[in-house]
């Protein structure tokens, strides 16, 4: 069970970092400090979101899964957007960047499985 959780968290964080760093590049971010910020912000938010989703899948009925994911992802987007707004040196509309990057990450995660 422990190895499964480590693998789940590691794969999820690794894929999220690749996707959201690529999204940052597409968004026009070029400064190393901003890429580091994107990395650190995702290290902060991804494990919490993955853990909550895992707990939901383990203990709650399937009926409210979509609403739960919507609420959890909204919290992630708002949290990341506020951090980006405060600290991102490049790029306009940091909340839109957060929404786009997390949207890509979330949808690709759903497609992967």
List keywords for this structure.
mainly alpha; single chain; 113 residues
What does this structure look like?
- The protein is mainly alpha-helical and 113 residues long.
- The chain has one domain.
- 85% of the residues lie in helices and 0% in strands.
- It is built from 4 helices and no strands.
- The protein has helices at residues 2-27, 32-59, 65-87, 94-112.
- Helix 3 (65-87) packs antiparallel against helix 4.
- The radius of gyration is 14 Å and the shape is globular.
- The two termini are 19 Å apart.
- The mean pLDDT is 91.
Which helices and strands occur, and which strands form pairs?
Layout: H1 2-27, H2 32-59, H3 65-87, H4 94-112
Helix pairs in contact: 1-2, 1-4, 2-3, 3-4
Give the averaged pLDDT, no decimals.
91
Global structural class: mainly alpha
**What portion of residues belong to β-strands?**
under 5%
Count of all domains:
1
Q: In angstroms, what separates the terminal alpha carbons?
A: 19 Å
Molecular shape: globular
Number of helices: 4
Transmembrane segments: 6-28, 35-54, 66-83, 95-112
Keywords: Membrane, Transmembrane, Transmembrane helix
């Amino acid at each position: 069970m422990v190895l499964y959780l480590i693998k789940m968290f590691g794969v999820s964080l690794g894929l999220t970092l690749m996707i959201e760093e690529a999204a940052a590049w597409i968004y026009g971010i070029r400064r190393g400090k901003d890429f580091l910020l994107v990395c650190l912000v995702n290290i902060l938010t991804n494990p919490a979101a993955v853990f909550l989703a895992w707990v939901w899948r383990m203990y709650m009925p399937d009926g409210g899964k979509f609403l739960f994911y919507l609420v959890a992802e909204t919290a992630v987007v708002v949290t990341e957007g506020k951090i980006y707004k405060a600290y991102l040196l490049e790029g306009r509309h940091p909340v839109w960047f957060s929404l786009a990057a997390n949207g890509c990450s979330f949808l690709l995660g759903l497609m992967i499985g």
